[in-house]
Amino acid sequence: MSTSVKQDLATEIIENQPAFEVAHDSRTLALEQFKKLGLPSAKHEEYRFTPITRHLEKNFSWTNNNSESTLSSISEFLIPQLDANVVVLVNGRFNALHSKIVSLESEVTITTLSEAFRKEHPAVKEYFNKNLQTETDAFAALNSAGWQEGIFIHVQENTTVSKPIFIIQINDGSQSPVITQTRILGVLEKGSSISIIEKSDTVGDQVAFHNFAEEWIIKEDAHLEYCKIQNDAGKVCQVSNSVILQSSNSKLNTFTLTLDGQLIRNNLHILIDGENCESHFYGLYLLTGSTHADNHTVVDHRKPNSFSNEMYKGIMDGNSKGVFNGKIYVRPHAQKTNAFQSNRNIIVSDTATVNTKPQLEIWADDVKCSHGCTSGQLDEEALFYLRSRGISETNAKAMLLYAFAAEVLEPIQNETLKAYLDNLIAERLHKNF
User: Fold this and answer.
1) How far does Cα 124 stand from its chain's mean position?
2) How far is residue 271 CA from its own chain's centroid?
3) What is the per-residue pLDDT across 390-421, written as a single tens digit (0 to 9) for each?
4) Which value, to the nearest 10 degrees, does the dihedral of the CA atoms of residues 238, 130, 116, 96 take?
C-alpha cells in the first residue's frame, strides 16, 4: 500500500466518523500518526498471521455507517444473577436508558470521557493517551483520533468498590454496517480496589468493525480484577488495545475468554512500573467455524522485585485459526524479577490451525523467567482410559477438553461470574456428562 493511498484511506476513515464530542490536541497527533502508519499489510510482522486490512477492505465501506440504534432491550446480553453496576455503550456512545448503577460508593466516578474532558478532570489530563502505542499501532492511533463519548472511571484513595462494574459494548448493525470506536480510561488511586467485567456483542445482520482502546492506571497498593468476554454471534471484526500501568505493591488479575466473532485481535500491554507488583494473566480461546482469534500480550518489567504469571490456552475446531504471541521484557533495573509464561493448544479438527510465538527479552541477570508452548491433539492414552471405563468417545473427548479449559477459571473470585463462564465453556465443548 503506497503512502498516498494510506493517507487517502486514513483521511476517509476519520472524515466519515460522527462529529467529535471533544476536540483535543491528541486527536490531531493521532490522525497524523495513523496517516503515516496506514493499516498493517501482510508484511507487517505483528499482523503476519491476522489479515485485518484485507478483511476490512473486503467487507467495509467507510461511508454511511453508524445509523441510530433501535435497540429496545439488553436482557440477552446480561449475566444472570450478577449483582453489578451496568454501564452500556451502544455504537460507541453511553446509553443511559439501558445502564443501571445499583450501588456505587461516593468516592467512585463513572462518567463519559467527553464529560470528564469538559470538566478538566486532573486524572484525565495526566493519564489520557500517555501509554497507548499510537506511534507504532495503527488501530491505537485510529481510536485516539476517532473515539466518541467513551467512559471514564475514577476510584479515590483507599476505596473498595463493593460491586463489579459490568461494561457492555453493543454494536447495533440492524440498519447498516457499523464502525464503532470505544474508549475507556480507568484510574485507581492508592489503596483502591475494583472489579471490571467487559463484554462485547453485536446485533443485526450487517457487518461491524469495533476498534476498542482502554487505559488502566493502578497506583500504589491498588488492586484490579479484570475480565473480558468475547462471545459475539454477530459479523464482527474487533481490535482491542488494552494498556495497564502498575505502580508499586499493586495487584492485577486479568482473564480473557474468546469464543465467537469473525476476526478478533486482542493486544494486552502490561507496564509493571513499580516494585513488589503481582500480576496474573489468563486467557482461553475456544474457536470453531471460521473464527480467527489473535492474542498479542506484552509484559514489561521495568522495576525490580515483581512477579508475573501468564497462562493462555486454546482449543481450535472446524476451520478456526488461533494466534498467540507473548512477549516478556525484563529491563536492566528489574532485578529479582520472576516472570513465567505458558501457552498450550489443542487442535481438534484437521482443518484448524494455530500459530504461537512466546518470547523473552532479558537485560537483567538476577531473575527467574521461563516460557513455553505446546500444540497438539488430545492425549490418546487418557482417551483410551476413559473409553475403557465405558464412557462414550464423545463424552470422553468432552471431559478431557473441559478439564483442559476449566483450569484457567480457578483464579476468578466472583462465583456468579465463574459459573457463567463455566457454563459458556461447557456449552461450547458440548459437555453433557
Assistant:
1) 21
2) 16
3) 888 888 888 899 999 988 998 899 999 999 99
4) 10
Q: How far apart are alpha carbons 92 and 98 in whole angstroms?
A: 14
- Per DSSP, the residues of 149-164 read S-EEEEE-TT-B-SS-
Sheet holding 321-330, edge to edge: 108-112, 151-155, 178-188, 208-218, 236-246, 263-272, 292-301, 321-330, 353-362
Nearest to 231 by CA among 175, 166, 293: 293
Question: Could you tell me if 321 and 287 are in contact, meaning their C-beta atoms sit under 8 angstroms apart?
Answer: yes
Measuring CA to CA, which residue among 351, 354, 346, 324 is closest to residue 401? 346
* Torsion from C-alpha of 28, 264, 178, 145, nearest 10 degrees: 0
Cβ pair 397, 406 in contact under 8 A:
no
298 contact partners, CB below 8 Å, separation of at least 6:
267, 268, 269, 270, 326, 327, 329
CA 345 – CA 312 distance, rounded (Å)? 9
How big is the chain, counted in residues? 433
- pLDDT for the residue numbered 174: 81
Q: Tell which residue, 188, 259, 294, has the closest CA to residue 423.
A: 259
Percentage with pLDDT > 90 across the chain: 66
8 Å CB contact between 62 and 12: yes
Q: DSSP for 5-67, please give it.
A: HHHHHHHHHHHTSPPPS---HHHHHHHHHHHHH-S--TT-GGGTT--HHHHHHHH--SSS--P
User: What contacts 394, CB < 8 A, 6 or more positions away?
Assistant: 430
- Judge whether 295 and 283 are in contact, CB under 8 Å: yes
C-alpha 99/C-alpha 168 separation (Å) is: 9
Sequence-distant (≥ 6) Cβ neighbours of residue 217 within 8 angstroms: 123, 127, 186, 187, 188, 245
- Alpha carbons within 13 A on the beta-carbon side of 4: 0
Least confident of 70-79, 178-187, 193-202: 70-79
**In this structure, are residues 84 and 197 in contact, taking their beta carbons and an 8 Å threshold?**
yes
Across the beta sheet with 368-376, what order do the strands follow?
93-94, 85-90, 165-172, 193-203, 223-231, 251-260, 278-287, 307-316, 338-347, 368-376
pLDDT of residue 397: 87
Indicate the pTM of the whole model: 0.93
